[in-house]
Design a protein that fits this description.
964 residues, alpha+beta, 7-stranded mixed sheet, 6-stranded mixed sheet, 30 helices, 23 strands, globular
């Protein structure tokens, strides 16, 4: 449930080419040559209310109504109908791990767990069952997160009724004011928290902790991991946890956000009714001083983690001084954003061309109200971190020495503008849950929310005020790499006694003049290879009355499923299925199939590589993602009505005239090999590497390939393998969303309809088998922590759409939901053995076999047998007797509500019918969707359990620590 730094590559700023506005400490003066903005906001608010906008001159988002109770509780309510019927509630408590004393480490997160158990209003465990009856799925609709600075409780209540809202707000109020903190409950939940801590990936945790120790030396942040320590958690008593609660869980530290498809007055009424009587215990305590970055601390460090890639992280730390969210504050950080984007684009260009690093990027952020930081991360090719760091620093040094061209700046500005305009277009269909999360995050970092239109006006004001010039961006390129201290840490695969000195020297090395810039020539869609003449529509029909879905066939064999539906304003989903997917690949020997997802799109189109394609599409809503499904290869994108024609052209040309740039293949190899040791470093990593292959009886098409297979892949073998696959097999195009149907037919005819007829593969799908029952579990080992293990038990089911297969698969989801709820209660809540055990039913529609019900648990090594015993006991009980009506209802209602919520989106309908032009049963099964779930009975569940949960058919595997 908690949130903190986990992924060591999370800050790699390939993603920072997206127009996210990073918070930065506000400066007292404008950048050189920048006049004050002409953007009209409001006078800076000096009043306390509306509370979000104190010290801000931003235009208020009047869709929100803000209020404050007499006891200090702040709240915001809003009407929102996405998805229909749902209400999202966030209760943000201004208490995180930075509020803990040394003896209380982990208490904020522990208290989050205890609050869900029981309170003054509900007995232990009952809140989960109440919310399940109201359609809430535990873990996705009800959850919480604890960070350094906050604990936020989240509830998404589907089909909210006044009675359901009243009960839910009562439960939430009791969780805040009076959680049940007793010895029995603490004894039950403490093992769950310890299990959560135990299940964290050890190498990543150690690297994260080392980074925090170095980067924030002298500040509490360095020693306040929200999960806490084993010692402090074991020493926790009801009295000490209650004291922590009473000190920090006070009404004046609470912010309640409620948004959904009801009258906001009702939401406000619920807040007033249930939170007004809350009173703090004892005098209020001020928040502790989080400190500021301190100079004079060590500037370099290293850690040896062979399971992680060699990685260099540089952080420039500055004091966090955000004190008012103003127009000029945002405009100044937009200049910083453009500077960072230009640097990251140059770094990515160099990586794509086969440089010394696989990936590198810079990022600006605020962390835990403790520091404003610039982070640079460098993932080298091989182990030569020094050469990679030198080249990255050279790119940054070049950006600081020589101003960018206005053309470079204009490219970034255009891409940001395009994204912000699209944000305006899609704002009417923003999900209420997202808006609630955005507001909670704004509260956390002392910022506000405004309308998408005014956000764009702030940006446009900066553009019109000529704030984005070579001089201003050059100045930002310097200031964002200045601060109180610059610190770096390197992860190595072998100890180096001189590493600290080497890192310090690398930070000071002169790299001036070593940075190179690449200039692109003219790039346009007109230069893409030509397609044929527009194809003719051979047939067109409406399918599934009431859904608006049409099915078309073109003369060249291409088929189209489309749905014109403007309910998701500004969004058009495109899905292109071709060929036979995994089932069409050979099941003997090694192939370069693994490199398709990371390298196929990046290999280019026609004479254009990824650089040119980025330039071509950067300021438009055009893209491409490639996936390999069981029964098809897919190219996916989200676009707009205006960009749809060129989006389709790009995807069609990818199939007809692919380019074969070798660099993406080499880069994909280097990337996966750099972290390959990590696939052995924890039980869940071993499962992610091997489980799917084992469940397909060793078939090499599934799972992560061996290191030798990856090493043997070359650009030539990649092309030889993929080129015929792109050119053969049927094509089905799906276009769903806010588009014009006739224009879409015309665009598909001019692109996919213009392709030459494709040769269909004559070979039948290559079969595979589910593994046979084993008397003792298959045993795998990992090289990680000795207290970690994993266990999986699986039963074969079926696959395909024949003989009611889709209906069977839907009913199996109900069985799996019941199984999961029992396993969660018994393995987690009662035994405290596993933090988040999972049960799922998988039924591949495109294959005649391969389905399974599977249970997985991360457990201590000495509890593996207990996991298998418990899973088999649950299975046997489901076979022996029908479930009772309440248990069935608590499984069915959340499933039905999930479907109802998803059905308001076009992606839901597209997923339902994809593949339907070749398999009509998929389309026909849409009409039975509601009854397939609503008519499931206890006898149906028992019948499925008897049919599939057979003890002579189950298959088991365990991952245990490697013998030392």
């Amino acid at each position: 449930m908690h949130s903190f730094l986990r992924a060591p590559l999370a800050l790699l700023a390939l993603a920072s080419l997206a127009p996210v506005l990073p918070a930065q400490a506000q400066q007292n003066t404008n950048p050189p040559g920048v006049p004050d903005t002409k953007t009209v906001g409001r006078p800076v608010q000096t009043a306390k209310d509306p509370w979000l906008y104190e010290k801000s001159d931003l235009v208020h988002d009047d869709a929100w109504k803000f209020g404050r109770l007499s006891n200090g509780v702040r709240y915001a309510v809003r009407k929102n109908g996405v998805p229909p019927g749902q209400v999202s509630v966030r209760v943000r408590m201004d208490v995180g791990s930075l509020m803990e004393q040394d003896s209380e480490r982990g208490f904020a997160h522990l208290l989050e767990h205890l609050s869900f158990r029981g309170s003054v209003h509900v007995p232990d465990g009952e809140s989960k069952r109440i919310w399940q009856r109201l359609g809430v799925t535990f873990g996705s609709d009800s959850n919480a997160s604890t960070t350094f600075t906050a604990t936020t409780y989240k509830l998404d209540l589907p089909m909210a009724t006044p009675a359901g809202l009243d009960e839910s707000f009562k439960i939430l109020a009791g969780m805040m004011s009076g959680p049940e903190i007793t010895q029995p409950i603490l004894n039950s939940e403490r093992p769950v928290v310890l299990a959560e801590q135990r299940e964290q990936p050890g190498p990543q945790v150690r690297l994260r902790d080392a980074m925090l120790d170095l980067m924030f030396a002298g500040q509490p942040l360095a020693q306040r991991d929200p999960i806490g320590t084993v010692e402090t958690l074991n020493d926790a008593t009801p009295a000490s946890v209650q004291a922590f609660h009473d000190r920090w869980y006070r009404p004046e530290r609470a912010t309640i956000i409620a948004i959904g498809d009801v009258d906001p007055a009702l939401l406000e009424q619920m807040i007033v009714k249930h939170f007004s009587d809350w009173k703090g215990t004892g005098p209020a305590v001020p928040s502790p001083d989080f400190g500021k970055p301190v100079a004079g601390k060590p500037v370099s460090a290293s850690i040896v983690e062979p399971a992680l890639p060699v990685l260099t992280t540089i952080t420039i730390v500055r004091p966090w001084t955000v004190d008012g969210d103003t127009v000029i504050f945002n405009q100044k950080r937009m200049i910083d954003l453009v500077a960072i984007r230009i640097i990251n684009r140059r770094l990515e260009t160099r990586a794509r061309s086969g440089g010394t690093y696989i990936a590198a990027g810079a990022d600006l952020s605020d962390l835990a109200r403790s520091a404003n930081i610039t982070t640079v991360q460098v993932l080298p090719v091989g182990d030569d971190w020094e050469a990679a760091l030198r080249d990255v620093r050279a790119v940054i040094a070049d950006a600081q020495a020589t101003a960018p061209t206005q053309a470079e700046i204009d490219r970034e500005v255009a891409e940001i503008a395009s994204s912000m305009q699209q944000r305006i277009n899609t704002a009417p269909v923003d999900a209420g849950a997202k808006l609630a999360d955005d507001l909670a995050e704004a509260v956390d970092i002392n910022e506000t929310v405004t309308t998408p239109e005014f956000s764009y006006a702030i940006f446009k004001g900066a553009v019109d005020g000529k704030m984005f010039t070579p001089a201003t961006v050059l100045a930002s390129s310097k200031t964002v790499f200045q601060g109180t201290a610059t610190r770096a840490i390197v992860n190595l695969h072998a100890p180096d006694p001189a590493i600290t000195t080497k890192v310090a020297s690398a930070l000071e090395a002169n790299v001036a003049g070593a940075g190179k810039r690449k200039v692109l020539g003219n790039v346009s869609f007109a230069a893409l290879p030509k397609l044929g003449l527009p194809g003719k529509v051979a047939s067109r029909e409406q399918i599934l009355p009431g859904t608006g879905i049409e099915k078309l066939a073109f003369a060249n064999g291409v088929t189209l499923l489309m749905r014109q539906d403007p309910s998701e304003t500004g969004k058009v989903y495109v899905n292109v299925r071709f060929g036979g997917g995994l089932s069409s690949l050979p099941n003997k020997g090694a192939t370069p199939a693994w490199a398709g997802e990371p390298a196929l799109v990046a290999s280019g189109v026609g004479k254009y590589g990824q650089e040119e394609l980025d330039y071509l599409t950067g300021n438009r809503q055009i893209g491409a993602d490639f996936d390999i499904d069981d029964d098809a290869f897919t190219l996916r994108a989200q676009t707009t009505k205006d960009d749809l024609s060129d989006q389709l052209r790009l995807l069609a040309t990818k199939l007809s005239a692919p380019a074969w740039d070798p660099n993406p293949v080499n880069r994909a190899k280097a990337g996966i090999l750099s972290g390959y040791a990590g696939l052995s470093a924890s039980p869940d990593a071993v499962m992610s590497r091997d489980l799917e292959r084992l469940l397909h009886n060793g078939d090499p098409r599934w799972g992560v390939p061996s290191k030798s297979v990856i090493e043997a892949t070359t650009p030539a073998s990649f092309r030889k393998f993929w080129e015929p696959l792109l050119a053969t097999g049927p094509i089905e195009v799906e276009v769903f969303g806010d588009m014009d149907a006739e224009a879409t037919v015309k665009a598909v005819a001019a692109t996919f309809g213009a392709l030459k007829p494709r040769v269909a593969s004559m070979a039948p799908p290559v079969p595979f088998e589910f593994p046979a029952h084993v008397a003792t579990p298959v045993t795998l080992t990992h090289t990680g922590q000795p207290n970690q293990a994993a266990a999986v038990i699986a039963w074969p089911t079926g696959g395909g759409t024949a003989n009611g297969g889709i209906t069977e698969s839907r009913k199996l989801e109900v069985l799996a939901a019941i199984f999961r709820d029992r396993l969660l209660d018994q393995l987690r809540s009662q035994a405290g053995v596993s933090y988040s055990p999972q049960v799922a039913s998988q039924w591949p529609l495109g294959l005649s076999t391969g389905g399974k019900i599977m249970a997985l648990g991360m457990v201590p090594p000495d509890k593996v047998d207990f996991f298998f015993e418990l899973s088999r006991k649950i299975a046997a009980d489901l076979v022996a007797k029908p479930v009772d009506a309440d248990e069935l209802n608590r499984a069915l209602t959340p499933l039905k509500q999930q479907i109802l919520r998803m059905s308001s989106g076009n992606m839901f309908w597209m997923r339902l019918v994809e593949g339907g032009t070749y398999d009509p049963a998929r389309i026909a099964a849409v009409e039975t969707l509601a009854q397939d779930y609503s008519r499931v009975s206890p006898a149906d569940v028992q019948g499925l359990a008897m049919k599939y949960l057979r003890p002579d058919k189950d298959w088991t595997v365990k991952v245990v620590p490697e013998a030392k």
